[in-house]
Amino acid sequence: MMGPVSRMSYVVNLSLKGRPVLVAGGGRVASRKAHDLRRAGAEVTVVAPEICPEIEGMGLKLLRRPYSSEDLRGKFLAIAATDDEELNARISHQAQAKGILVNVVDRPALCTFTLPAVVRRGHLTIAVSTEGQCPALASVLREELEERFGPEWARAVEVFGAIRREMVARGSSGEEIREAVRTLYSSDEATLAALIRKSGTR
After folding, report:
1. What integer best gives the mean pLDDT of the chain?
2. Residue 66, in any domain of the structure
3. Do residues 127 and 117 touch, judged by C-beta distance below 8 A?
4. Residue 131: what pLDDT?
5. Is residue 3 in some structural domain?
6. Domain range spanning residue 181?
7. 189-200 and 153-169 helices, crossing angle to 10°
8. pLDDT, position 1
9. CA distance 175 to 11
10. Does a structural domain hold residue 11?
11. Domain CATH number, residue 122
12. Based on the domain organization, do 189 and 136 belong to the same domain?
């Protein structure tokens, strides 16, 4: 007899370019969230009675006052990152009632989405999630992946992309492309590094 099926999240890459989002909170955690949202191209509004210098320097829309439910009007997504758990829970419930995606920092039960630990190397994004069970483990694994996939992988992805485009132009099948990429990825580091350096001189 099978046991109960655990619920797993459906992992997606969310396009936020030009979308209005709200960050409630003005401290260091809110600063990190606002920074990442800004990098993703979102139109970020931060609301908090006190806002840290890091947020001040981002050029975002700042509301220096307590949060109001009206702040959610027209928003696509909201982040609750205040130091008041009761307020964070209220923001979560109000956002969900309006059909707005919401994340409450360190409270997965109050979230409609959670944020993985991420390594970015150009167009390469590697995400690690523990489904909210242990974010600290995800952070440790991210550090390991940062060592494994260094800055040179930003260029490596461009090389793989160029190979794929060339093979598509020649009419290669999806399986042929996967096999070529698999072979190159499995080659020794010196061979891959030489190919990356060579492509960079073109």
Report:
1. 90
2. yes
3. yes
4. 83
5. no
6. 153-200
7. 80
8. 40
9. 24
10. no
11. 3.30.160.110
12. no
- Contacts made by residues 50-58, CB under 8 angstroms, sequence distance 24+: 50/26, 51/26, 52/26, 52/27, 52/28, 54/28, 55/26, 55/30, 55/31, 58/34
Distance CA 95, CA 88 (A): 11
Are residues 56 and 62 in contact, defined by beta-carbon separation less than 8 angstroms? yes
Quick one: 49 and 120 in the same domain? no
Question: What span, in angstroms and rounded, lies between the C-alpha atoms of 39 and 30?
Answer: 14
pLDDT confidence bin for 4, thresholds 50/70/90: very low
Q: What is the average per-residue pLDDT within 61-88?
A: 98
User: How many domains does the chain fold into?
Assistant: 3
**Are 135 and 67 in the same domain?**
no
How many angstroms separate the CA atoms of 198 and 195, rounded? 5
In-domain check, residue 6: no
Of 154, 165, 159, which Cα lies nearest the Cα of 185? 159
Find tokens 């696509």 and name the residue: 76
DSSP letter string, 28-57: HHHHHHHHHHHHTT-EEEEE-SS--HHHHT
According to the model, what pLDDT value does residue 6 have?
56
Task: Note whether 49 and 98 are same-domain residues.
Answer: yes
Instruction: Please tell me whether residues 110 and 72 are part of one structural domain.
Output: yes
Length, in residues, of the chain? 202
SS3 58: coil
Are 177 and 196 part of one and the same domain? yes
pLDDT tens-digit map of 95-145: 999 999 999 998 989 999 988 899 999 999 999 998 878 888 999 999 999
* One domain, residues 60 and 129: no
